[in-house]
Structures are given as C-alpha cells and as structure tokens.
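Supplementary Methods, section 5.1.

A reviewer requested that the exact input to the structure prediction be made available. We therefore reproduce it here, unchanged from the version used in the analyses.
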Amino acid sequence: MENFYLIIVVVLFALAISDLIVGVSNDAVNFLNSAFGSKAAPRWVIMAIASLGILIGATFSSGMMEVARKGIFHPDQFYFAEIMIIFIAVMLTDIILLDFYNTVGLPTSTTVSIVFELLGAAVAVAVVKIMNSSDQSMLDLGTYINSAKALAIITGILLSVVIAFFSGSLVQWVTRLIFTYRFEKTFRYFGAIFGGFAITAITYFILIKGAKGSSFISGETLSWIKMNTISIIVVCFVGWTVILQLLVWFVRLNILKVIVLVGTFALAMAFAGNDLVNFIGVPLAGFKSFQAWASTPGTDPYGMTMGILAQKVHTETYLLVIAGIIMTVTLWFSKKARTVTETEIGLSNQNEGEEKFGSSFFARLLVRRSLSANSGFKNLLPTSIQKGIQNRFDKPATPPGIDKKDAPAFDMIRASVNLTVASILISIGTSLKLPLSTTYVTFMVAMGTSLSDRAWDRDSAVYRITGVLTVIGGWFFTAFSAFTAAFIFANLIHWLGGYAIIGLLAIAITFVVRSHILHRKKSTMDVVIQDADEEDASIIIKGEVFEQLTYAVAVVTTKIPKVYGKIVTGLAYEERSKLKESLKKVRKLDKEAKSLKNQVPLVVKKLTEDSITTGPFYVQLLDYLREIAHSINFIAEPAFDYVDNNHKAMVPEQIEELNTIQEKLEDFFKTVNRLLKENNYDLEQIEKAFGKQKDLLDSLRKFRKEQIRRIKAEKVGTRNSVLYLGIINETKNLVLHAGNLLKASRDFTANDGEDSILQTDDM
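The structure derived from this sequence is encoded token-by-token as follows.
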C-alpha cells in the first residue's frame, strides 16, 4: 500500500513539472506584455531580466503555499487517502485546462483554475463521505469546505478585476494628461520624480511586503522592516529620484526604459511569489501528507486525518529554486507563451492592424452608448477645457520611414503605468495572503490603460471590446470547467482507484500532445516573426508579392472545382455530411481570401515609386479572388441548408445539368490554373481559356431556361427553384470572376517587370 501512495507522490511531482511548463506559457503574458509591446529593450535583455525576477520571486512564495493545504478545505476532516485523491484530481485537471487555453492563445487565470479545482475535488470527496455516513446530510458540507476562506479568495479575485481596470484607467489618464504623447520636454523636469515614485512603489510592495512570504528572511529582519516602513519609503523615494536625475544629467539615461525593465523584473517576482503555489503547492502538500503518513508505518490510509496540513509548514528553499529554474527555462523556449502574449498586445495596440477578434452585439451596443455618453459629457465642459484635454492626448504622426507595423504597440509611458499599477495591486494581494489572479490584474490594467490612452478608437473599439469580453468569458468558463472536471476526476479516482489514475494520465498526455500539434499548425502562417538583429522583432511578409499572389490564386483555382464537385454530389445523393464538409472548406477559403485582402493597405504602403503602377492591378486581383470566395460560399451554404432541412430531393434533370456544369467548370478552372502557374499569357492560350468560359456561360443560360420551363410545368417547388436558380447565378458570377482574375493576373505580371513590389530593404 505504501508503494502505491509513493507512486502517486511521484506522479504528483511529474505533473507539477508539466504544470509549471503550461502555467508559465499562460502567465508569461503578465510580465512580458509591457516590455515587448513598448519595445523597451532587445528581446534577450527583457527575457533575462524577467528570468532573474522569477528566480528571486520563487523564494518569496513559501507563505502562499498554505493556500493549497488549508485555503479551500479543512484538511483535518479528510483522511490521508482522500487527500491524495483530491490532489491527484486537481493536478490532472489543471494541466488539461491550462494547455487548452495556451493552444487557443487566451490568457486565463492559473489562480482561479487551482482554487476551483481544489473546491471541485474537495466537494466531490466530501459528498462521498456524507453519502456513506448515516448521521450526516448535505447541510454538513460546510464542515469539510473552508467556505469563508474560499469566498474571500473568490471575492478578492473578482474585485481585483474591477479595481485593476479602473485603477489602470485612472492612473493612465492622469499620467497622459501630465506628460502627453510628446513627453520628452516634460520628462526632463518631472521624469526623475515619476521614476522615483514608480520604483519606490515597486520596491515597497514587492521587496518589503513580499518579504513576508520569503523562505529565508528571518523574523527579526521582518520586524525591523515593519517598524521602519515609512523611513524606508522616504529614503527610497528621495534616493531613487536623486540617482535618476543625476544619471539623466550625466549619462542621458532613459528613465522610462529603467522603469519598464525594473517593472518587468518586479512583476516577474510578483508572479513567481504569488502564482508558484498554483503549480507546486498541491504536489508539495501531497508530499508533506505522505511524509506524515509514512512516519507511522502500518497506519490505515483511511484512518489517519490530515490535520497536520493546517499547521504552518516551511517550504525548503531548494524546492522553490528548482521550480524557479523550470519556470525560467520554459519562459525562454515556450512558443505558446508568445501566442498568449500576442493576444494581449493586440488588444492594447495603439496602431491600426488586423484585429484578432470579430464584432459582437454587446460590443456594438456598448460603443454606441459610450459615444452617446461621451458627447453628453463634453457638452458639460467649456470648449477651452475640451481643447486643452484634446491637445494633451493628440498622438504624434509616425516618423517618416517607419511603418506602423514596425512601431511599438504603445509607448513606454503606458508600459510604465501598466507595470507599476499591476505590481502594486498584485503585491498587496500577496502580502494579505490572497492569491489574486496575476493574469486578471495585469490584463485588466492593460485594458484600462488602453481605454484611457484612446487606443480603442472608433475603427477598433468593437473588436477590442469583443476580445476583452471573450477573454473574460473564458475566465468564467475556467471556473466552471475547473470545478466540474475536478469533481468528475475525483469521483472516478475514488471509485476506480489506480485504473482511473492511469486512464486520466493517458487522456492528459494525449490532450497535451494533440494540442501541441494543433498549435504548431496554427503557427504556420503567411506572417512570421523574426528577430532579425535581436534588437527588434518585426513582422515581414513571406516572399515577393507576385509569388505570394501566384500561390494564393493557384490554391483557390485548384480548390474551387473540387469543392463544387462535392456540393453537386452532396445535392444529388442528399449527403449532409459531404455538404457540411464542403461548407467548412469554403468558409476557410473565404477567411484566407479576406486575410489577403486585409493586407492590401500594408503592401500598398511598401510600394516603391518605380512599381507604384502595379498597385491597382494588385488590388484588383485580390478583389476578384475575394469575389470568387464569396460566390462559392453563396453556393455551398444554401445547398447545405436545403439538405439539412430535409427538403425534396433535386429532380434527375437538375442533377444531370449540374454534373454537366461541374465538368465544364473543372475543365475551365484547370486551364486557368495552368496558365497562372506557368505564367503563360500567350494570346492564343488566353483565347482558348475564354472560349471554354463562353461555352460554360452558354450552358448556364440554357439550364436557367430549362428550370423556368420546369417551374411553369409545376415539376419543382419554390424552395427547389430558389436553390437551383441561386446556384446557376452564383456559378455564372464564379466563372466571370475567374476570367477577370486571369486578366488581372496577366496585367499584374505585365506591369511588374523587373521591379520588386516591396522595398527590398524591408525584407
């Protein structure tokens, strides 16, 4: 029996390592977002500073470990075997859940996940105990669950969302009002004071407050710090202010860079000090439980309660350091960490660009109401004050020669506010032993500062708000799914024992491997990130425009006849699954065409003067490509809906006609595809292609007349007629746009000449 529980402990620590990896991939956004978004330093410098912060912050996490042992449930009410069931269920759930969020690129809360997993697993075991007891009912559930502490933790997490958003919004508005976007002149006079305040705040809340949880700072040192808090704050503020001002005078120090880098270090410390419990707190608690049980050989695992977990237990520093090293290595090599970071930077970006999220009804409603309220508020202020405020928030134009795509997502003023406010809020939570969500706090602070900084203008507001709502909705899903999954896993392990553990481990491994493969495929896109000289991560477009378009057009002209054939077959045999599959492919194709179309402004801005005449043909070609995608979509969707709603089958004459169209369409598109691939626009070949187009259009006109005869003869119903005539019409559009695509490609090639479409120095 002892060997069985020893294996569970080993499994817990193996899961802890995995949890550290997926957890850091998710939470790296918390402390890297501001430094990366503002491009305060080369990537390797930012990463090195964050790594140092993690290593030091890990040793400050000892006090937080109590949350995993007694923060959610009363350990003295559970036997050793039951405690181990709770812990193994929690760790399995955590890995699966966090890896899912990392794969889709959404930042979620490791704190919320661990709290609700502990709650779900503990409730599951407690319910089993109550059901097996003759003198207890569900009203006694409070005996097992530390409801007061759990409620305080959950309330603290929810309140932190609101407080973080409004704190970030207010502080950023005041800061921007003082310094404006052209802050260089003002910063010469007040920069040292601003830096002194920011670094003092970070010093106090991270180093002083966080020291309470340290595994190596003595009680006497903590008492001295507490007695001299005010003196330390004053000395730090005066000292930092003087030092920064002297450095500005003598070495022209960029104070904002210092604040951003120190803030990154501090927030990394806060993350490690606050969130390390989420990853290793449960395995360490399981290890302590096993040590207590194994110290009395022969003890029944269902006969020894675990009141020892309620005692204050000191976590060894070496364990915390090992955890910090694993987190640091993950930070450097995790590709998923970059995906999650890109989501938050995109939502707070000051520049225009392709939005990751779409529009939603609530976002549109909120923007309309906000615009209305803003207009009403402006009417209350004198015109002079309105102009004065507007002048403080006027954004400078992008310097000549710098593309907006290459510019920082936001300036270092906002990055400094993000880091300072988030560090203070998280450190307060740490000092109060409340495991606030670092993800919630940093994300909402960043969103609040973005709002105040007017990053959400009328062209992007609905998409940014939809993105924020999507992330927040994911947080609620985290809580629900964490509780539910842990509840189910704990029950399975209780009833099936080791078999359930093996099965759930296999599921977890499969899920993680599969999600890794999906993420790798998702990361293969036309836009890649390169760290060219390790000083700036800039976005470039793969290849020349001509090569990119040739590839895109070839893909479309190859896929269209295949999908069209599947649609015809699906209608002929009423195969719903085949039509559904075709619709998915068509929507994906439409999305790809839309993505290419959205790149038009970026490419046009990069046109050289010598090749500027190519621009209209490039835009025209993409227009036709988009229209082709639209046309096939308007064929696939009605066809699927028709069969999905179980309407009458197509008559044999219609199927025969559609097969004829499909054969001629395939022949026409093969010809177009060959000419495009070979870049062969010989007059004879072009005329041959358009001869096939004319023949196909003649067939479409003929079959339209046949359908009208069937309608008059009442051989077909209304829904059948609407679908068939719609397919004929959209097929006509499809063929016409394909012909225009061929002409545009010919003109595009003819005008391209020897010139490169993009400036070669950008490539």
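Confidence is low (pLDDT under 50) at residues 524-543, 753-763. These observations are discussed further in the main text.
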